[in-house]
Amino acid sequence: MEHPLVGQLKDLTLEELQTKLQQISKRLSFAYRTGNDSLAYQLQMVQHSYTEEYNRKMRAMMPKDDDDSHNDKIDIS
Predict the structure, then answer these.
(1) Taking the complete model, does pTM exceed 0.85, yes or no?
(2) pLDDT tens per residue, range 39-68
(3) Is the Cβ–Cβ distance between 9 and 51 less than 8 Å?
(4) Which end of the chain, N or C, is surrounded by fewer C-beta atoms within 10 Å?
């Protein structure tokens, strides 16, 4: 579930997303240590939003395998 107050994450770079995820992780650890369950839940939603955007950007960087360039591979089925 995406957090409704996060805003647009598409404009952030991978490095900015990583930095934000580290900050959120520290805050989430603090929320767990202090027993603040409602804050921990909100931070988990924020973390999920940032993680999803990070994963989208990483998938976009990977080359697509849409062609038949692997026809020369041995079929072992």
Answers:
(1) no
(2) 999 999 999 999 999 999 999 888 776 665
(3) no
(4) C
